[in-house]
């Protein structure tokens, strides 16, 4: 089933997979305030949908996204400080919603990913890119800074690379993005990228949905924190909680009895 929301598509695929698709190829999938709201709404729908286990974020056309739409930038230039602040807060809400979505998010990047689109990639859990994909934090060319995407991009590529690319606005390729940590898998072309995505979907389908959500939250809980007594206690509590939970009990039972867990597609006998 496909639900169309203007330039953003929400597709429901088999196996509990939902696709959120930027569908504005004639504008290189550039986004504005309206599209930001549509993306937030689509993400919130998948968050609430119990049938959705995995989310794919991708774009139609030759390019993932050119970043901010020129018309939107013109409007922002004419807006006062309060209006610009509200606009920026909504973009920040989009990034936070994507980053903290409880379901795994796979990002597929082809062609150009510029400006805020780099932030979208940084907020995905797993990112695949075609070999010809290119990335650019281009804001300083306009006398601006990549402000609201910076927490996610810095965590993805590290402070050292962020200092270079935030300042230089150089274009870097998919292989460099992989070396920096922004991209996990580089594929020869779009066909290979979609085939690799399907392999990942099969891999994720074998994992407990609640466990994947808990694992994602675990990363947030321990990242950039010293290994203190509080962190050690928190991790002990987390594994104890999930072991006695319904999904943990089912997973352990399936493993010990050499059968498939109930969430694994196909015959579970």
How are the strands of the biggest sheet laid out side by side?
A: 1-2-3-4-5-7-10
The percentage of residues in β strands lies in 15-25%
Shape: globular
User: Can you give the mean pLDDT?
Assistant: 93
Main sheet summary: 7 strands, mixed
Termini, distance in Å?
Answer: 30 Å
Order of helices and strands: EEEHEHHEEHEEHEHEHHHH
Task: State the share of residues found in helices, binned by percent.
Answer: 40-55%
Tally of DSSP helical segments: 10
Pick out the low-confidence regions.
Answer: none
Number of strands: 10
Structural class: alpha/beta
Gyration radius, to the nearest Å? Answer: 20 Å
List keywords for this structure.
269 residues; alpha/beta; 7-stranded mixed sheet; 3-stranded mixed sheet; 10 helices; globular
Structure, described:
By secondary structure, the chain is α/β, with parallel strands linked by helices. It is 50% helix and 16% strand. It has ten helices and ten strands. It has helices spanning 33-48, 70-78, 81-99, 116-123, 150-168, 174-180, 190-205, 209-222, 229-244, 246-256; strands spanning 2-5, 8-12, 17-22, 54-59, 105-109, 112-114, 126-130, 134-136, 171-173, 185-187. Strands 1-2-3-4-5-7-10 form a seven-stranded mixed beta sheet, with helices on both faces. A three-stranded mixed beta sheet has the order 6-8-9. The protein is globular, with a radius of gyration of 20 Å. It starts with a strand and ends in a 13-residue tail after the last helix.
């Amino acid at each position: 089933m496909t639900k169309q929301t203007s330039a953003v598509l929400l597709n429901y695929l088999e196996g509990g997979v939902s696709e959120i698709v930027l569908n504005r190829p004639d504008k290189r999938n550039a986004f504005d305030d309206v599209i930001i709201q549509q993306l937030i709404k689509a993400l919130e729908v998948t968050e609430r949908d119990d049938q959705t286990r995995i989310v794919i974020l991708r774009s139609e056309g030759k390019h993932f996204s050119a970043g901010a739409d020129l018309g939107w930038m013109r409007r922002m230039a004419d807006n006062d400080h309060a209006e610009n602040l509200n606009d920026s807060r909504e973009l920040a809400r989009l990034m936070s919603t994507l980053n903290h979505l409880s379901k795994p998010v796979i990002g597929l990047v082809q062609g150009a990913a510029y400006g805020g689109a780099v932030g979208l990639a940084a907020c995905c859990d797993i990112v695949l890119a075609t070999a010809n994909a290119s990335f650019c934090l281009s804001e300083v060319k306009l006398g601006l800074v990549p402000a609201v995407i910076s927490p996610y991009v810095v965590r993805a590529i590290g402070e050292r690379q962020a200092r270079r690319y935030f300042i230089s606005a150089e274009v870097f390729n998919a292989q460099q993005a992989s070396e920096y940590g922004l991209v996990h898998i580089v594929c020869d072309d779009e066909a290979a990228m979609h085939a690799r995505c399907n392999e990942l979907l099969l891999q994720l389908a074998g994992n407990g949905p609640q466990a994947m959500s808990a694992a994602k939250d675990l990363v947030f809980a321990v990242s950039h924190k010293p290994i203190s007594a509080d962190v050690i206690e928190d991790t002990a509590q987390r594994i104890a909680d999930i072991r006695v939970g319904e999904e943990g009990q089912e997973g352990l039972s399936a493993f010990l009895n050499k059968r498939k867990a109930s969430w694994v597609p196909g015959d579970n006998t």
